Amino acid sequence: MFRELIARLTAWCSRRPTRLMRVACVQPLAGGVTLYAIDIDDRRIVIGACAGSIRVLDRYPLASLQTHPERERAPLAPKS
Q1: Which of 18, 36, 57, 80 has the smallest number of CB atoms closer than 10 Å to its CB?
Q2: What is the pLDDT of residues 6-19, one digit of tens each?
Q3: Residue 53 falls within a domain, yes or no?
Q4: CA-CA distance, 35 to 39, in Å (whole number)?
Q5: Which residues of 43-78 are buried (b: 16+ CB within 10 A; e: fewer)?
Q6: β-bridge partners, 32
Q7: pTM above 0.85, yes or no
Q8: The domain containing residue 66 runs over which residues?
Q9: Is 58 part of any domain?
């Protein structure tokens, strides 16, 4: 019984995640607020976080980015 429980627990812990997650962008803002753009499977989620809370600001399918690839690859303005 104990060996079966350990085997099941080991199998459960060694499973690969079914969802792919990638942090696409992190942008710190004034006042300790940070924006995160996170890709999970085929969706992008925009999250705002500060010291006291985390909020989901927007979510949309990544297919909308594929129709406008220049949004994803636009060069940053040079720092002055």
Answers
A1: 80
A2: 888 888 777 766 66
A3: yes
A4: 13
A5: ebbbbbeeeeeeeeeeeeeeeeeeeeeeeeeeeeee
A6: none
A7: no
A8: 19-71
A9: yes
